[in-house]
Design goal:
The structure holds two protein chains of two kinds. Among the domains of chain A are: 233-363, Transcription Elongation Factor S-II, Chain A; 408-599, Leucine-rich Repeat Variant (Alpha Horseshoe), CATH 1.25.10; 904-1028, Gamma-adaptin ear (GAE) domain (Immunoglobulin-like); 1033-1135, TATA-Binding Protein (2-Layer Sandwich). Chain A is an alpha+beta fold. In chain A, the strands form four sheets. In chain A, strands 3, 4, 5, 6, 8 and 9 form a six-stranded antiparallel beta sheet that branches. Chain A is built from 49 helices and 17 strands. The radius of gyration of chain A is 38 Å and the shape is globular. Chain B is of the alpha+beta class. Chain B has a single domain (1-150), classed as Beta-Lactamase, CATH 3.30.450.60. Chain B has five helices and seven strands; from the N terminus they run ββαβββαααββα. Chain B has helices at 24-39, 76-94, 99-104, 106-116, 127-152, and strands spanning 3-8, 13-18, 48-51, 54-61, 64-70, 117-118, 121-122. The longest helix of chain B is centred in the C-terminal third of the chain and has 26 residues, at 127-152. Chain B is globular and about 50 Å long. The chains are: A alpha+beta, B alpha+beta. Chain B: It is a peripheral membrane protein. Chain B: Its main location: membrane. Chain B: It is found in: Cytoplasmic vesicle membrane; Golgi apparatus; Membrane, Clathrin-coated pit. Chain B: InterPro entries: AP1_sigma, AP_complex_ssu, AP_mu_sigma_su, Clathrin_sm-chain_CS, Longin-like_dom_sf.
Chain lengths: 1137, 153
């Protein structure tokens, strides 16, 4: 039955809208595009396809340029051109026609025209300029769809120089009554901000307005801009933190319209955006971070459904928590969360878990220890991506003790990786680790050899540079120095004797330099042999000329005349006529210096300290020449960026005619903006420029920043001992030393001492202990980026000073806000709650109460019915004292009231019914509050227990309970006021749902006076799952059918089926019935219908069908949010099985 | 987001949207590389890839692969859900969508994408609102063609 209903219902909208959905290929099959597509699919070879498309393109070309082609035909032609371009064939002739179509077509043709433009052209394409006038016209159109199209294309691409022409129009759209226009305008401004931030500086206050827009969509769009701006300058936006927190709180609390839900999670995109913003704001800022702790905790707590989307939010939460100023209990929860990711069987989650771990392990290396076995498993994962991420994690926890194992793993991966980008990255990391933590000479040189041969010629040039620098500078210990160099020489000679043709050029360059400088250290090696080995490199076909010049230089250093003369003579003769000028110069140098040993000794002294060389990088010796040239009328030097700037500027000015229609103030303003940086750099004459040069020179040659140098004054000997310890690998590794508590618990359970384990397991555990050695001992952990007292010789200039000037302006603007933050807050609160407005509420309540009178006239409801309207509008009116002061009874130890005791205080009429666990709410020195809820057949009762735990009586006690989502009515009209010491008072409230939410919350306050006369209050909140309000709803199949058609709110989702041996549908429905108190109306074959009601009488119908291993569920109800909430609980119920 | 690609199991491109300015040649190279890499991956493997300095997030729906490139600091899971929401939108619009729908009506698929993502950022995540915007424009088409038929009479 319901299948038919479903079909008709889905067909209905399309019937109404004149069949606007062309059922797949139905309509197009007769069109030319259809023919083309089918033509292509029938072809068998690439060649045939090419022929067909070329033919097609010719036909299109002919038609588009024909004057008789109507815009309607043009639209069709453009679609075909797009298709051809997508297949990879160029149709550039149609670009101009796409622009024409956007210009001249009617709305629909325009739509295709704009689409074609956005697909064909990119931001820098010159034809885009021709679109400016069209956009300008459409932005002024009265047709909303045209305005939308113009804004859409503008947000995707727009020539930077033309922004001033349309900016006022786009700005104007921020006040448009339609939210879709406002939203698109905000995104267009976001785009402008990205490509030309100074153009939109003056409208920062309008961004604030967008942030406070009453439409959540517009507000969300504005967050893109804020994320960007805050990324650049977090300090300027700290004042917005409370607003962002408030928004997030409301989103998390489900205050947005249900439209924004995604799989029952409220606005996840918005949540993630906000979390990212908060992370930026709270970074290194304790007071700002404190504002957000609560909402972060709330987010963690709410995101509990087992769905990708909640994991996405959790991941962002964890990142935020670890970015902002730390709070221990949040960190603990976040760590637990990461654990769930890492241990998940789902590979995507595992990956993210590793990523999160990599992110946090810098702050908390213990976390890596907790998951060591998982990490080891991931290291052998068949998916390279997982493996790669694991190595990234290991990179972060490397220390002097585990470096050998980790580097070995990285090199293993390098051997199988085929991706260049990964290779470059990993090689850099290995080199960094090797320099930082190398345990000894041999290991260092061998590792670097592997780096050079694997990294090939792709690796960053600073790796060989810093390696050579390290080698040449050496240490204070001459002996160590010599050993290292000698070892390098020893390892290179056999390489050259072998097959040097296979080695990358960079490596050959390193080898020739080292041999040139240090081969004399090896006494048994004749220079002649080295020379001939080097000469062999020159003869190799694949040697680059750069390598050759390195080789020639090495030979220059080595040649001593005499027997070597013949080799050098031959070589220098060959290359002195080379076409490569550098090679020719080197050859001549070789020739002269080999013949003049005295000169050679002066030019190339052996063993000289390279640092004694001083290079005048400011080129001051040229100053006289320059000043003479200037005096003679030469133009002053301009750095490249300034030249470019001026070029852009002149280009912008020449395009003035397009800007004619814009207000003059606008264009002039933007031009002055543009000029300011030029003016600044104008003064950078000779001196400024040379300073720049010297800085550059320093940083390009020696990129050792951030690299800990273990090769310091003491050498690396000090670190040998721990390494040897680690090499033994076995049980008494530092991890297990008993002196360390705290982190010990989780460790001991995993350390390999326990029962005899199978072989592979043991291997893994051995690996684990060698990988994670030294992590637990704080002293030896060397956290990257953390304060390391290593002296760095070359410090990079502090960044961020330069662009600072541009931020000043934005700061000024933000300080001259139109609305102070508190107003922002208010606006947000009011607007975001619009689904909750008063009229709707009152209506719902009166509806509800009418039902109540007809259905069941129990005493407590009647009390309310007298004034249903006042209740809806002003709940404060009926907050009477409604607390039952129960007899305190004989109590020996009232301070330790247990649940059992409280049980006995349950009112007699409720004691037989099932109630939830009595949960403590809050407490202070004098009062202790607990609560539970009791499920009656037709109502839900909240029972609040107030315990006076103090030694004195309290007076004027008043308990007030209220809720946003619930109707709260007091059940027993009993006077409170005074409570004697150690007595218990009980308040009873009947709850009904006025607005369904996944969890509903009751908030309350107890105010009272101490005998001393000071008045105090205590606040609490109590959460009730919506399921407590669900009752079975007994209907017949026919009744169900009529009701189904009349309900307007619905939702659909697939749920997991329970697969035990009996029939899965029945099993699942029974489980739901048991958990959620649903009523199964009927089961027919693969379909089942279920009904329930939300107290008092709000029905919700559920239609279930088994489909491809899933239970397709369709829920309908007259209450707006009920289906969504219910589906959430169904999901939870099935998961918890 | 930097770009989005849709391609079939045979490696045929079905949709491409670039949010960063790239030359034609680069676009072709990127899509060729990516299609190859992704098609070579096994079904149980991770949906995320590191590729150059970008993060690739992809998912297969029936015979179609949806693939997005995001920056490294972006949230991969939410990108996966962006893909899913786009598929939901297509599904709702076409009524249980299949590859043929997208081949023959690719311009419609682009329109939907433009309403959903704008300039590489999620513009409107409410399914209802996106489809409302599309249907309004579509309705215009119908009115337009009806008017044309009248004028032809």
């Amino acid at each position: 039955m319901s299948d038919v209903v479903e079909k008709t219902l889905t067909a209905l909208p399309s019937l109404l809208s004149l069949d606007s959905h062309p059922g797949s290929a139905k309509l197009s099959s007769t069109s030319k595009l259809g023919n083309l597509i089918r033509g292509i699919t029938e072809l068998t070879s690439k060649h045939e396809e090419e022929k067909l498309i070329q033919h097609e393109l010719l036909a299109i070309k002919e038609q588009v340029s024909s004057p008789n082609t109507t815009m309607r035909q043009m639209k069709e032609l453009m679609v075909r051109s797009i298709y051809c371009e997508m297949l990879g064939y160029e149709a550039s002739f149609s670009y101009i026609h796409a622009i024409k179509l956007a210009q001249q077509g009617t709305v629909l043709e325009k739509r295709v025209g704009y689409l074609a433009v956005s697909l064909f052209l990119n931001e820098s394409h010159e034809l885009l300029l021709l679109l400016v006038n069209t956009v300008l016209k459409d932005l002024q159109s009265t047709n909303l769809i045209e305005v939308c199209m113009a804004l859409t294309v503008v947000s995707q691409m727009f020539p930077k120089d033309m922004i001033p022409a349309i900016l006022p129009l786009v700005e104007e759209k921020l006040n448009h009554p339609k939210e879709i226009i406002r939203r698109k305008a905000v995104l267009a401004l976001y785009k402008f901000y990205l490509i030309a931030p100074n153009q939109v500086q003056h409208i920062h206050n309008k961004f604030r307005k967008a942030l406070c827009d009453k439409d959540p969509g517009v507000m969300t769009a504005s967050l893109h801009i804020y994320l960007q701006m805050i990324q650049e300058n977090p300090d300027a936006y700290k004042d917005l933190t409370p607003s962002f927190v408030t928004i997030l709180k409301q989103v998390v609390g489900g205050k947005l319209p249900m439209d924004f839900n995604y799989h029952t999670v409220p606005a996840p995109w918005l949540q993630i955006q906000l979390l990212r913003i908060l992370a930026l704001l709270g970074k290194n800022d304790q007071s700002t971070s404190e504002v957000m702790y609560e909402v972060l905790d709330e987010s963690l707590r709410r995101a509990e459904m087992n769905h990708n989307i909640t994991y996405a939010i959790l991941y962002e939460c964890v990142k935020c928590i670890y970015t902002i100023h730390p709070k221990s209990d949040l960190l603990e929860k976040a760590a637990k969360c990461i654990g769930n990711f890492v241990l998940s069987p789902k590979i995507n989650l595992k990956y993210l878990g590793l990523k999160a771990l990599t992110y946090v392990v810098q702050q908390d290396p213990k976390l890596a220890l907790q998951h060591q076995m998982t990490i080891i498993e991931c290291l052998d994962h068949p998916d390279l991506i997982i493996k790669r991420e694991t190595l990234e994690l290991l990179f972060r926890i490397t220390n002097a003790q585990n470096v050998t194992v980790i580097v070995e793993k990285m090199l293993e991966f390098l051997c199988i990786s085929e991706d260049d980008h990964t290779t470059i990255d990993l090689v850099g990391k290995v080199a960094e680790l090797a320099e930082k933590y190398a345990p000894d000479n041999e290991w260092f040189i061998e590792t670097m050899n592997t780096v050079f041969s694997l990294g090939g010629d792709m690796m960053q040039p600073d790796i060989p540079n810093s390696f050579l620098k390290l080698l040449s500078e050496g240490f204070d210990s001459v002996e160590e120095d010599r050993k290292l160099k000698l070892f390098a020489v020893n390892s290179y000679v056999p390489l050259l004797r072998g097959e040097p043709g296979k080695l990358p050029q960079r490596f050959l360059q390193v080898i020739s330099w080292v041999l040139g400088e240090y081969s004399h250290l090896r006494e048994d090696l004749e220079p002649a042999e080295v020379l001939s080995l080097l000469a062999k490199l020159l003869d190799m076909k694949n040697s680059s000329s750069e390598t050759k010049s390195w080789v020639l230089m090495a030979m220059t250093k080595l040649c001593k005349g005499g027997t070597d003369a013949s080799v050098t003579q031959e070589v220098s003769e060959t290359y002195s006529s080379s076409l490569d000028t550098v090679l020719r110069q080197r050859a001549h140098e070789l020739q002269y210096l080999s013949q003049d040993p005295e000169l050679r000794a002066r030019v190339l002294p052996r063993g000289a300290n390279p640092e004694t060389l001083e290079v005048d990088s400011s080129l001051s010796f040229l100053d006289r020449f320059v000043s003479e040239a200037l005096a003679a009328g030469a133009a002053p030097y301009k750095p490249p960026h300034q030249r470019q700037e001026e070029l852009d500027q002149s280009k912008a000015l020449s395009l003035e005619p397009y800007g004619l229609s814009l207000p003059i103030s606008m264009s002039s303003c933007s031009i002055t903006d543009r000029q300011s940086p030029t003016l600044l750099s104008m003064s950078s004459g000779l001196s400024g420029d040379s300073a720049d040069l010297s800085h550059k020179g320093g940083s390009s040659a020696l990129k050792l920043d951030g690299v800990k140098r273990v090769w310091g004054r003491e050498g690396y000997l000090a670190q040998r001992e721990p390494v040897e310890e680690a090499a033994q690998v076995e049980v008494p590794s530092p991890i297990q030393s008993p002196g360390r508590q705290g982190e010990g618990d989780s460790l001991h359970s995993q350390t390999p001492t326990q029962t005899p384990t199978p072989e592979p397991e043991q291997e893994k555990q051995q690996l684990a202990s060698s990988l994670f050695v030294g992590l637990a001992s704080q002293s030896s952990v060397s956290l990257m980026g953390k304060s390391e007292p290593t002296p760095q010789r070359f410090r990079r200039k502090a960044k961020g000073q330069g662009p600072g000037s541009s931020f000043n302006a934005s700061e000024q603007i933000s300080s001259s806000l139109i609305s102070p933050p508190s107003a922002v807050d208010n606006l947000l609160c009011n607007n975001l709650l619009d689904s909750n407005n008063a009229s709707e509420l009152a209506e719902q309540t009166s509806q509800l109460s009418q039902r109540l009178t007809t259905a069941n006239g129990t005493c407590h409801t009647e009390a309310e019915l007298t004034e249903p309207d006042t209740k809806g509008c002003n709940p404060a009116l009926r907050r009477d004292n409604c607390v039952v002061a129960a007899d305190p009874g004989p109590h020996d130890d009232p301070g330790r009231l247990t649940e059992v005791c409280l049980d006995s205080y349950l009112p007699a009429e409720l004691s037989g019914l099932s109630h939830s666990e009595i949960a403590p709410l809050c407490a202070n020195q004098s009062l202790n509050l607990s609560a539970c809820h009791v499920q009656k057949e037709d109502s839900l009762i909240l029972v609040v227990f107030i315990i006076n735990s103090s030694e004195s009586a309290i007076q004027q006690m008043l308990l007030q309970v209220d809720s946003e989502e619930l109707e709260v009515s007091c059940l027993c009209d009993s006077p409170a006021g005074e409570m004697t010491s150690h007595s218990v008072a009980v308040g009873q409230y009947s709850l009904t749902v006025k607005r369904p939410a996944v969890h509903v919350e009751v908030v309350g306050t107890v105010s009272y006076q101490l005998p001393a006369g000071t008045s105090q209050s205590l606040q609490f909140s109590y959460k009730v799952p919506l399921t407590s309000f669900i009752r079975p709803f007994v209907v017949s199949t026919e009744e169900y059918g009529t009701m189904w058609l009349s309900f307007s709110h619905d939702t659909k989702q697939n749920l997991t089926l329970i697969n035990d041996n009996q029939e899965p549908l029945t099993a699942t429905l029974n489980a739901l019935k048991k958990k959620l108190q649903l009523h199964v109306v009927e089961v027919i074959g693969m379909e089942g219908i279920v009904a329930c009601r939300l107290l008092q009488d709000l029905p919700c119908l559920m239609h279930c069908r088994v489909n491809a291993g899933w239970l397709a569920v369709w829920l309908r109800s007259p209450v707006p949010d009920l289906p969504d909430c219910l589906i959430y609980h169904c999901q939870r119920a099935l998961q918890s099985l | 987001m930097q770009f989005m690609l849709l391609f079939s199991r045979q490696g045929k491109l079905r949709l491409q949207k670039w949010y960063v300015p790239l030359s034609d040649k680069e676009r072709k190279k990127i899509s060729r590389d990516l299609v190859q890499t992704i098609l070579a991956r096994k079904p149980k493997m991770c949906s995320f890839l590191e590729w150059r300095d970008l993060k690739i997030v992809y998912k297969r729906y029936a015979s179609l692969y949806f693939c997005c490139a995001v920056e490294d600091q972006d949230n991969e899971l939410i990108t996966l859900e962006i893909i899913h929401r786009y598929v939901e939108l297509l599904d709702k619009y076409f009524g249980s969508v299949c590859e043929l729908d997208i081949i023959f009506n690719f311009e419609k698929a682009y329109f939907i994408l433009d309403e959903f993502l704008l300039g590489g950022e999620a513009q409107e995540t409410s399914k209802k609102n996106v489809l409302k915007a599309i249907e309004q424009a579509d309705l215009l088409q119908e009115v337009h063609s009806v008017l044309l038929q009248f004028s032809a009479l």
